[in-house]
Predict the 3D structure of the following.
Amino acid sequence: MVAIRCRGLDVDLGRRRILSGIDLDFSAGSLVGVIGPNGAGKSTLARAILNLLPAAGGSVAIDGTDVTRLAPPDLARRIAYLPQGQELHWPLSVERLVGLGRLPHLAPFSRIGAADQAAIETAMRETGVLPLRERIATELSGGERARVMLARALATGAPTLVVDEPLASLDPGHQIEVMALLAARARAGALVVVVLHDLAAAARYCDRLILLHQGRVVGDGVPSEVLSDEALAAVYGISAWRGEIGDMPLLVPLHRLA
Amino acid sequence: MNLSGRGHAPALLPLLFSGAFVAGILSIVVGSAHIAFPDMVSAIEGKGDPIVRAILLELRLPRTILGLLVGAMLGTGGAALQGYLRNPLAEPAVLGISSMAALGAVIAIYFKLADAHPWMVPLLAIVGAIAALVPLLRLSGKGESPLTLILAGVALATLAGAGISLALNLSPNPFAAMEITTWLLGSLEDRSFKDVLIALPCIVIGIGLLLSQGRALDALSLGEDGARSLGTDLGRVRLVLLAGIAIGVGGAVAVSGAIGFVGLVVPHLVRRFTDRSPSAVLLPSALAGAILLSASDIAVRVIPTATPLKLGVLTAFLGVPIFIHHLLRERRLW
């Protein structure tokens, strides 16, 4: 089932066109990686899907409804979003921070109920941050904080998850954990769209990759097709080594091409 | 610390309510005219000396009510602005909103607009507050640094101060110099129930609007994109906060002048007894603001000075150290 549909999507930032003519369908039950060099428009695509940036042309539809027609809380219950950069302005406890994920479900002036509390606990357990629940989130290490922020997005309980650069500031162990968690979510039926810089992680975990270059889709398919030698040379200006261990695809960027 | 469902220490609200009640009683009891307690009781019962009765009910009671109301508004305004702007230095006076509201009130009074209708004073104060808030919110929307907002506030406060001085110098007013300090530093002297009637509705509406936005302020802890992705309609939030601050602070300043730093100090004092989310700080800031301003107003009455001390002088002495402390801490981020 198509969960998100972009048709002829153009997005401008200021006077610059960042994305042009994007046609994409995203289906439930898949882990989709959005890759591309710096400035290719990856985060802009994520923000446009969430209606955080207006479309200059074309449209984005969620479950068949145009995003601009969905009331903000309704949209928030359908797509959870984890922005880049882990912005947090007040020294909230981990549990309080993860609880913010339940805001789209709360009626005005109501308090967090049993179902909300259960969702918060599950999200903290899945991301391994239950032992940190009383800690102050601004005092955590970068890796701990990244997992807490991911727990906040998961606590929303939305069927679609859009995650922008979740691996930045994570050590290899936590990188593997986070990607495995996102893959498990997709296997359980969710649509997970993840913006990635790490091509090795993209090749290994994603069911499908979308390669952006200068605001356009230049590759869309299974990782082995999208990450071809030609595409890596043309888009990133690099060569790479490719291999497999068992059925696990591997990719190691090797050289910058002249 | 164990916290209640609303994110406060369980004893916080009962303590603050009791504190506000005690401050209100003290504000009626304490003053330059010494009145024995039995005389007070008989005056309130409608017996005894009519002068004592007039002092208590017509001078001290409105002053007490205004102290509690204005303090509550400034406390809530500071907490809401800090939450919305995600800036611990934000408050109505530091950002120049109070001074601009005072300029509006001064224009209404000294250009005789108030003679046409007494509501012209709060109305122009509200317009003054809006004139300050619109550029400030615009700057904040562009993701400017905390420093830029504070500098914009300094510019607005300076402009308003100059405007107030000019308006009073131009008016045929022999007490211009004294009046200027009253409006710029704030005072609750010689207020009547007419002032209460002006301030009360404005402040009730203002505080109500600000309290209604607690959840949106919590979502803003994650930044604007984070808040919007949680279903917050930022345009609406901005409008409700603008209305709440403008109406509440406008109404407060119309009767008290621009009293500084209450909105800065109070959220910092209560935050440690909450879960530190912006919504949990709002109501405690209202109560603590009421206590702080009433206590300051009692202090200016008891501190022996040749001419009565202005309320804003005392609140500035309390507020500036906290302001500087946070300025130095924030400096790392610039």
User: Anything to note?
Assistant: The two ends of chain A are 43 Å apart (CA to CA). The CA atoms of residues 119 and 157 of chain A lie 7 Å apart. Chain A touches chain B at residues 47, 50, 52, 71-77, 79-81, 83, 87-93, 96-97, 100-101, 103-104, 106, 108, 111-112, 152, 156 (CB under 8 Å). The first strand of chain A starts at residue 2 and ends at 13.
